[in-house]
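Justification of resources, computational component.

The compute hours requested in this renewal are based largely on the per-chain cost of generating structure records like the one below. Each record pairs the submitted sequence with a full structure-token output. That output is archived, and it is also reused by downstream analysis tasks.
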Amino acid sequence: MALLNDFKAFIQKGNVLDLAVGVIIGAAFGKIVTSLTEDLIMPVLTLATGGINFANKFILLGAVPATYKGSLTDYAALKAAGAPLFGYGMFVTNVINFVLMAFVIFLMVRLATRAMAKPEVVAPPAPPPGPSEVDLLTEIRDALKSRS
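The structure output for this chain reads:
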């Protein structure tokens, strides 16, 4: 029963709920960045490089299984068939995904940090230059002495 109570207390903490929400949003955000890379950036990069499709860039490292009947240039089909591949094109795509995601997260954290920053406290203006308090007290003392 103590284990159940401890688990209940753990789940009810705000940090656990915040973490769960963060994981869900992170997964959805990852899909958006993947789509950005695969559907927008990589096609433009393919066009700029003269039609090179990075996703299909690979080196065949061994024999293709005898039962394979597909194209020898189809990375996904060869991978599914179990052919040994060095898929550097997918690696490049994933590195671009990572860099984009890291940059967007950086921008989001930067924006959130600025939004949550406390306003800068402005120091009160310096008093105008003039006699100090000691000088004023000395003048008052001298004025009182001269009256007597």
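The longest strand covers residues 59-60. The beta strands are 59-60, 85-86.
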